[in-house]
Design a protein that fits this description.
This protein is an alpha+beta fold and 683 residues long. Helix content is 41%, strand content 17%. It contains 18 helices and 25 strands. The strands form eight sheets. Strands 19-18-17-20-23 form a five-stranded antiparallel beta sheet, with no helix packed on it. The chain has a four-stranded parallel beta sheet with strand order 3-2-1-13.
């Protein structure tokens, strides 16, 4: 189903943030600021729109955090639900409802979905073998199991993913798995679960439906979905053996909950129900009416869930509309490195709001101007400072301030009488904004649309600089000065509209200075004109420049995080002793990389052909984010030869490349200090 040509209303969702930590700038740039920008524009057009979000509060990571802290899972989610909700409100994200998945209305809604699909026979019931902790007498979810990653050798890989090399895993892939609860090796035990038959849906409708969005979905979104479909969808478990979560609403199934990936997106619907009950509205018109357009704003790590799995759930239910657009963004890096919550390598929203009070538009501006719309982008504090100072302060703030000051200086703060001829250059810029920005919004090009909107301030600055009213004589050139000032005031008024969806605080401040009403529409952009004699309020400084010491403090804070990681590495305990004979079993030799290429559909893997001196063998290594394939041809490496071969993404990997990881998480080859023959033993 493509988006209705003229939808009556818009149901807009922003990804439910996981309630085990605060919000950082990567979340904002990838999802929440673009979503808020789009919603503000829809409202400016007079559209009927509901903006939905809430905290995702179930799942194993929360139970693990609660266990580590010695508190209940509810205590964990209560803390972060409040922290995230407060931060979003302080930033001005204009959700109509911010709910949570631990709310009773959500449990009721998710259980209704389960029963609807269960009674329709949409689930496949299977008895499977799962890991079980005999000491704790409980089944272990994937994240409760750790072991050695078969790909990179990380001894603390989780049962669903190795966070060191990024490889997706299942618990059975781990070498020497152990329970995170007791530390003991788990045993296999049979248990019953329900699976959603995604393979069946792919054959009957998903492939065809996805093709309808080939042209109107972002290439990165469609491409990732097609990759999954090309590999073939498989039945996916929707339940887990766990105490924390939405209980499976079937008699005799105690200890089973809905898998968090199944219940979390239903949180959009339960949040809508919560909002509707409070406001006396009909929630179903937002989700069950073909005149409603459903749009999901997410990061790229949630594409498959929102483009394939959640639509499959909605379609299986039968009464719900499917998403028209899922404008997912890529990732935002920080100072040239990946944002990492575990390493505290992040700019946290709540800390930014404390350190830079009254500067939330500055953050909105910078994150929109570097938004990772088509590829990963990078935030740095020096760039933040430059954009605020050189663009917001020197271009926008300077123009508005000069116009306000000149009006008060020459005409007592009132719009002068004028009979001016508008500047063709300025009018062309304004017309282009009026025509292009709606198209850019619908194409999810917020970065470009912000740049184009700011062009009106650039054009205003040029107009004023060319006219130079301050060089004219008020007694002899009064009419000419009046024409220049009156027209400049109208440009400022238009700016308050053009930039309102990006910089809501700035727009409101400009309109207060101009003594204009808070309510306006997009159509006012071209007809904005203040009548003669209209009294303006006193000028205000829109933006204060960011000082060097302010960004130096933030950089130092990040550096402290690096130093803390270094200290952790330096004090990492020595592993358990092994015997000399055990060490001698490892056959480690010097090899030379002959060929290197990326593994399709795997961002972190390289396929290497290595000359080991005794043969040429293929090794799959999780180093793609650290090295370009073409840059490591001829590189000498240390390779563990007698590691049991294992298939990774369908490729048999015959060995392991040894790497050293520094305090920043960067990988380095373990290599001889001068060239040696391939096959030389490392002792």
């Amino acid at each position: 189903m493509n988006q209705p040509k003229h939808p009556k209303r818009y149901t807009v969702t922003a990804a439910l943030p996981y309630a085990n930590g605060p919000v950082h700038i990567g979340h904002l740039a990838g999802c929440y600021i673009p979503a808020d920008t789009y919603v503000r524009f829809l409202r400016l057009l007079g559209k009927e729109v509901l903006f939905i979000c809430g905290s995702d509060e179930h799942g194993v990571p929360i139970t693990l955090k609660a266990r580590d802290l010695g508190i209940s899972p509810q205590d964990v989610v209560d803390k972060y639900h409040k922290m995230m909700g407060d931060s979003f409100r302080e930033l001005g994200i204009s959700f109509d409802v911010y709910s949570r998945t631990s709310a009773p209305v959500h449990h009721e809604t998710a259980q209704e979905f389960f029963l609807n699909l269960y009674h329709k026979g949409e689930f496949v019931e299977q008895i499977t073998e799962q890991y079980y902790d005999e000491q704790e007498q409980t089944f272990l979810a994937d994240r409760y199991i750790v072991g050695t990653c078969p790909n990179c050798g990380n001894e603390n890989a989780y049962g669903d993913q190795c966070e060191k090399c990024g490889k997706s895993l299942s618990p059975s892939d781990l070498i020497q798995p152990r329970s995170r609860l007791s530390g003991l090796p788990p045993v296999k035990k049979q248990t019953k679960h329900w699976f959603l038959a995604l393979d069946r849906y792919q054959q009957t409708w998903i492939n065809e439906w996805m093709l309808t969005h080939k042209e109107d979905w972002k290439p990165n979104v469609y491409g990732q979905c097609k990759s999954w479909l090309d590999q073939g969808l498989q039945p996916r478990a929707i339940t887990r053996d766990l105490d924390w979560g939405v209980k499976v609403p079937l008699e005799g199934e105690d200890g089973k909950v809905l898998y968090v990936w199944f219940d979390a997106p239903i949180g959009y619907i339960s949040a809508t129900r919560e909002w509707a009950e409070k406001n006396g509205e009909d929630w179903e018109k937002w989700w069950k009416n073909e005149q409603s357009s459903l749009i999901h704003f997410i990061g790229k790590d949630n594409i498959v869930f929102h483009c394939i799995i959640f639509p499959a759930i909605l379609k299986a239910h039968g009464d719900f509309i499917l998403p028209d657009h899922v404008p997912a963004n890529e990732f935002l890096n920080l100072e040239g490195d990946k944002i990492s919550t575990s390493r505290n390598w992040a700019v946290w929203l709540h800390e930014y709001l404390q350190d830079f009070p009254g500067r939330r538009d500055e953050l909105r501006y910078v994150l929109t101007s570097i938004a990772p719309e088509t590829k990963d982008s990078d935030f740095s504090w020096k760039d933040y400072q430059a954009r605020v100072n050189n663009e917001l302060a020197d271009i926008l703030g300077n123009f508005v301030n000069r116009v306000m000051v000149l009006t008060h200086k020459y005409f007592g703060g009132k719009v002068p009488t004028s009979a001016f001829t508008p500047s063709a250059e300025v009018e062309d810029v304004a017309s282009q904004i009026f025509e292009k920005l709606p198209e850019q919004m619908d194409a999810w090009q917020f970065r470009q649309s912000l740049f184009d909107a700011l062009n009106l301030a650039r054009a205003g600055n040029k107009f004023l600089a060319d006219a130079q009213p301050w060089k004219l004589n008020l007694e002899t050139d009064r009419d000419q000065i009046a024409d220049i000032i009156a027209y400049s005031i109208d440009i400022v008024s238009r700016l308050s509209i053009a930039l309102s969806v990006f910089l809501p605080d700035t727009s409101a401040k400009i309109r207060r200075m101009l003594n204009l009403p808070e309510q306006f529409t997009w159509n006012d952009l071209l007809i904005a004109h203040l009548s003669e004699g209209h009294a303006l309020n006193a000028p205000e400084i829109l933006f204060r420049k960011i000082e060097d010491n302010e960004v130096d403090l933030q950089i130092a804070k990040l550096q402290a995080s690096k130093e803390a990681i270094k200290t952790t590495i330096q004090h990492k305990p020595v592993k358990d002793s092994i015997t000399y004979d055990e060490f001698m079993k490892m056959d480690i030799r010097v090899g030379t990389i002959l060929e290197a290429e990326r593994v399709p559909k795997a961002d972190k893997l390289l396929k290497l052909l290595v000359d080991t001196g005794i043969d040429k063998r293929t090794v799959v290594s999780g180093i793609a984010e650290h090295f370009a394939p073409e840059a490591i041809i001829g590189q000498q490496v240390s390779i563990l030869l007698n590691l049991e071969p294992r298939k990774i993404r369908g490729i048999e990997s015959q060995g392991m490349i040894l790497m050293a990881e520094d305090a920043e998480g960067k990988l380095r080859f373990v290599q001889p200090n001068e060239p040696v023959n391939p096959g030389s033993e490392i002792r």
